[in-house]
């Protein structure tokens, strides 16, 4: 029985001094109820205050659900553990349309995405303005934003057709742009997509093939990267998705909104953690130095944190991290990498941290970024490309959440308020009279 049928209270009473107000309680299908405070300011002249949004629902959504205590992640109701065995474009279809596709729908979707994987030829000139050592994330932010300058026929967000074509274009072109950013950073020529390859194989070929020889896709590795994309596809209202929604709420075009999401994801507290986690494992350097770094992570005066550990929502093991760990072993096995010293450090670090009181009482567990770096490095990607791959996969989540917001009839521009603690009103003093 869900809360809406039980005798759960339908409202919350707020009492300030000798006044009281009834605030409606809204029920979801699963997960916490919400207290509707939309009229709070009009009724009480007060705001709520929740800087990190730890207790704030910013929107209603039907796309992804996380139970942080139980370590559950559902895309449109399907557990991530089950979807991890499907293919990424099927997950894209599910996130966009809300249902799993029939065979015919899947074939049509694959066809549509495949035939939008090329980018306008002028885009290749756009890249050449960057230094070769530019971080690929800076190139990706810029090139995705630049798509607005090329695809005017999918920027009218009031047109459902244009919203869908923009979504398809974003999903289709993000691997091409990501691969171009990588090729540019290593001074190799761009590789065009091939329509007879699946999404993940196409991406690996655009990254690792060279004109001088045929590139043979390893099916185990393309399966692994496809699964990694599925794991990263969406994750409720995380920082970058919230950024995309806020940018989209002003009516900005979808490409600009996705560029904003990429910029936010870059931070080491968010999508940049996979790059930071691998660097951290390298800095630790050996298993016997782990205690030193565990102590640093616990020291309030030391800004060091265990990258790839902890999560705002998961207070249990991130279900994606378990699948990522399994994928990591699969990839290392396929590549014949027997003893990766960084993997040994990661496994020992996880073992020690999960027994340590500091991490246990704060419910800090490995998150998706803890094992992804080792896997991506084994696949041949430099650390600077790790967050690019996260952004590639998350693009479907961003564009799906953007589309859901635009199609929500109650959607308005997002405009939070504040607790002001600055100077009270005072008069201007001309500089000649200032002491
Ligand atoms: C992602 O939101 C999403 O869904 C994100 C994501 C997605 O798919 O979109 O899941 C992807 O961003 C995963 C998280 C990747 N980031 C990292 O791995 C960076 C390391 N983790 C931390 O920075 C931190 O855990 C956060 C940012 C992930 C969560 O921060 P919160 O929720 O604000 O938690 P907090 O900083 O308030 O920490 C609570 C306590 C603090 O100690 P006390 O002040 O209570 O004594 O836990 C400690 C923190 O110091 N803590 C850590 C820690 N993470 C939290 N201590 C050491 N190492 C850590 N990693």
Automatic annotation (TrEMBL):
Keywords: Acyltransferase, Transferase, Tricarboxylic acid cycle. It comes from the Bacteria. The keyword Phosphoprotein does not apply. Transmembrane segments: none annotated. InterPro entries: Citrate_synth-like_lrg_a-sub, Citrate_synth-like_sm_a-sub, Citrate_synthase, Citrate_synthase_AS, Citrate_synthase_bac-typ, Citrate_synthase_sf, Citrate_synthase_typ-I. It catalyses: oxaloacetate + acetyl-CoA + H2O = citrate + CoA + H(+). One of its GO terms (molecular function) is citrate synthase activity. The keyword Acyltransferase applies. Pfam families: Citrate_synt. Pathway: Carbohydrate metabolism; tricarboxylic acid cycle; isocitrate from oxaloacetate: step 1/2. Belongs to the citrate synthase family. This is Citrate synthase. It comes from Ancylobacter polymorphus.
């Amino acid at each position: 029985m869900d809360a809406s049928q039980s005798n759960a209270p339908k409202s919350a009473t707020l009492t300030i001094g000798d006044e009281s107000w009834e605030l409606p309680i809204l029920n979801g299908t699963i997960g916490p109820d919400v207290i509707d405070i939309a009229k709070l300011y009009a009724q009480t002249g007060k705001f709520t205050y929740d800087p990190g949004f730890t207790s704030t629902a910013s929107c209603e959504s039907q796309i992804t659900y996380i139970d942080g205590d139980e370590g559950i992640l559902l895309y449109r109701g399907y557990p991530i553990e089950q979807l991890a065995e499907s293919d990424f474009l099927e997950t894209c279809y599910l996130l966009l349309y809300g249902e799993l596709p029939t065979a015919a729908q899947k074939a049509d979707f694959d066809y549509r995405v495949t035939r939008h994987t090329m980018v306008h030829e002028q885009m290749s000139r756009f890249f050449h303005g960057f230094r070769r050592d530019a971080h690929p994330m800076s190139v990706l932010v810029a090139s995705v934003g630049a798509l607005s300058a090329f695809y005017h026929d999918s920027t009218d967000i009031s047109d459902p057709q244009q919203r869908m074509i923009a979504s398809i274009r974003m999903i289709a072109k993000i691997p091409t742009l990501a691969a171009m950013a990588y090729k540019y950073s290593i001074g190799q020529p761009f590789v065009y997509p091939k329509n007879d390859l699946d999404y993940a194989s196409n991406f690996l070929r655009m990254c690792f093939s060279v004109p001088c020889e045929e590139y043979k896709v390893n099916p185990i590795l393309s399966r692994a990267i496809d699964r990694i994309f599925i794991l990263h596809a969406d994750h409720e209202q995380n920082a970058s998705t919230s950024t995309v929604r806020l940018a989209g709420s002003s009516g900005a075009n979808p490409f600009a909104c996705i560029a904003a999401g990429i910029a936010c994801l870059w931070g080491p507290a968010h999508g940049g953690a996979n790059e930071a986690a691998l660097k951290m494992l390298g800095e630790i350097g050996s298993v016997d130095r782990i205690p030193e770094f565990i102590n640093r992570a616990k020291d309030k005066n030391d800004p060091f944190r265990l990258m790839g550990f902890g999560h705002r929502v998961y207070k249990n093991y991130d279900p994606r991290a378990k699948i990522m760990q399994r994928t990591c072993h699969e990839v290392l096995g396929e590549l014949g990498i027997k003893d990766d010293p960084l993997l040994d450090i990661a496994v020992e670090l996880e073992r020690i941290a999960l027994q340590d009181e500091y991490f246990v009482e704060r419910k800090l567990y490995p998150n998706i970024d803890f094992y992804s770096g080792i896997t991506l490095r084994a696949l041949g990607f430099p650390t600077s490309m790790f967050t690019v791959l996260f952004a590639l996969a998350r693009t479907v989540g961003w564009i799906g959440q953007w589309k859901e917001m635009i199609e929500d009839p109650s959607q308005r521009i997002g405009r939070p308020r504040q607790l002001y603690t600055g100077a009270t009103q005072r008069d201007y003093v001309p500089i000649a009279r200032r002491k």
